[in-house]
Amino acid sequence: MASALEDDDISTDDYYSLLNVRREATNDELKAAYRRLCMLYHPDKHRDPELKTQAEQLFNLVHEAYEVLSDPQARAIYDIYGKRGLDVDGWEVVERKRTPAEIREEYERLQAEREERRLQQRTNPKGTISVGIDATDLFDRYDEDYEDVAGGGVPHVEINRMHISQSIEAPLTTKDTAILSGSLSTHNGNGGGTINLALRRVTSAKGWGEIELGAGDTHGPLFGMKIFRNLTSRSFVTAQCGLQFSSRGVRPGVTTVLARHLDKNTMGYLQWRWGIQSSMNTSIVRDTKSSHFTFAVQLGIPHTFMMMSYQYKFQDDDQTKIKGSVKSGFFGTVVEYGAERKISRHSVLGATVSVGVPQGVSLKIKLNRASQTYFFPIHLTDELLPSAVFYATVGPLVFYLAIQQLIIRPYVRAQKEQDLEKQRESSASNIARKKQEAESAVLLMQESVRRIIEAEESRMGLIILNAWYGKFVTDNSRRHERAKVIDVTVPLQCLVKDSKLILTEATKSGLPGFYDPCVGEEKSLKVLYQFRGVMHQVLSGDAEPLRIPKQFNRRKGYLWMNKIDLAQRLTAAEKIFLMCS
């Protein structure tokens, strides 16, 4: 796809699709396609005043496409900026006499300047809200006379802790960034807060440094420094030191992390921490397209443990993941398992069941919405009760399926329809213009199509019997949807040459005689054709290349049909005549 200086689509005319050539097409390929369309649309070939006017418009459009793509400088500008880059009256992007390489360098410079302007306007907010819930009364009953107490028959569920944190980044220059963060926490009626300010500077392409200042009513003032440095292309190191001031004095702390790429998908880490919680930790993390694996061992005060986790990633549109982990140390043993799934464009919902000794059973629900995280740890019981494990596992699954059917899917469907409607409204005038051009092109193709069919029939060649382009509904679950297709039999037959039809890898809506009948929706091309007296059918995606007929028609997706009595049917030429008249 051609790059663009702006995020929005800057070109409504795809010159490559109009000429039906590859984006890497040579000058000879461009010239052959241009000559063929010129013979079709040349105004002098049409005597009817209305057809002559329509031919002039299409001829000028084809000539414009050829002029741009046959000129190396103009083609480089078009490939990068789209059609807007060629409009002198709009904004002059680069000198027209530069080479394609110089044009691309200029484009990269302009992109860097644009990114800098965007950077200065971006704050990149991030936040976390955590609400701890104590639901042990649902499963733990310590008092035998509990039910005799007034209100004792209703389990007591309460919020026992809450944590809120927020941070924003304010880019000062392309190298300097200020980070402001704060947090509030409360636990069983006691709480406090902190505020931190960090200044980060990129010192070179290999590293950066950061200074942090903080204050709070629980730990006192904080001063810290952090350094990141790439040692080689496969390893890096981070070093962090801090001074925590409190009523007990100054508490220093140092943390160092050394990381190295073991292979393409595997990282190894070594961490040393000295200070309030001294420890040594080593871990291996392997992340692939289908899985994520972590193994870690830590020796330290007060926590020494060994941990192993595995996550499997399903290759579906919802980015479903299932995970499990085991962590064992001086504190006990914890087994966790769970899953997460994308529920909308910017939201991911996850649930994890934690079973441990002596921690008991907990359910952790997490919702990521854009850059905000909402976390709800629910403590169910202090003991290992099978009933708690069962309800913690089945409950969220049943709840998710109900919410998915009643809320999420209808919302996503409505949001998609709303986005499509906005896209249709914004492109309505352009689609109307393209539709008019396509109808004019079909009228101008009639004579050429008659000659092509006569030549193909004389040698038992390629005849396009029927062709449709647009959205097809074949799934029974989507029978309520309406198919949105247009008849493109004539335009496709016009593209047949020497008993072959070749379409390049580009959207077919830009081909002569085509237009987009369903903006923003998935489209395909369905062709019923006759070759050597035998009928075949093929279905091709919108941007997929197509070449028919295939040798022996062995390619998967082709539907073979038995030979029919052609004498009992209308000839292809008669069908085209009836469709065009």
UniProtKB/TrEMBL annotation:
<keyword id="KW-0496">Mitochondrion</keyword>
<keyword id="KW-0007">Acetylation</keyword>
<comment type="function">
    <text>Required for mitochondrial inner membrane organization. Seems to function through its association with the MICOS complex and the mitochondrial outer membrane sorting assembly machinery (SAM) complex.</text>
</comment>
<dbReference type="Pfam" id="PF00226">
    <property type="entry name" value="DnaJ"/>
</dbReference>
<dbReference type="InterPro" id="IPR036869">
    <property type="entry name" value="J_dom_sf"/>
</dbReference>
<dbReference type="Pfam" id="PF22774">
    <property type="entry name" value="DNAJC11_beta-barrel"/>
</dbReference>
<dbReference type="InterPro" id="IPR055225">
    <property type="entry name" value="DNAJC11-like_beta-barrel"/>
</dbReference>
<keyword id="KW-0143">Chaperone</keyword>
<dbReference type="InterPro" id="IPR024586">
    <property type="entry name" value="DnaJ-like_C11_C"/>
</dbReference>
<dbReference type="InterPro" id="IPR018253">
    <property type="entry name" value="DnaJ_domain_CS"/>
</dbReference>
<dbReference type="Pfam" id="PF11875">
    <property type="entry name" value="DnaJ-like_C11_C"/>
</dbReference>
<comment type="similarity">
    <text>Belongs to the DNAJC11 family.</text>
</comment>
<dbReference type="InterPro" id="IPR001623">
    <property type="entry name" value="DnaJ_domain"/>
</dbReference>
<keyword id="KW-1000">Mitochondrion outer membrane</keyword>
<protein>
    <recommendedName>
        <fullName>DnaJ homolog subfamily C member 11</fullName>
    </recommendedName>
</protein>
<keyword id="KW-0597">Phosphoprotein</keyword>
<keyword id="KW-0472">Membrane</keyword>
<feature type="domain" description="J">
    <location>
        <begin position="14"/>
        <end position="82"/>
    </location>
</feature>
<dbReference type="GO" id="GO:0005741">
    <property type="term" value="C:mitochondrial outer membrane"/>
</dbReference>
<dbReference type="GO" id="GO:0042407">
    <property type="term" value="P:cristae formation"/>
</dbReference>
<keyword id="KW-0175">Coiled coil</keyword>
<dbReference type="InterPro" id="IPR052243">
    <property type="entry name" value="Mito_inner_membrane_organizer"/>
</dbReference>
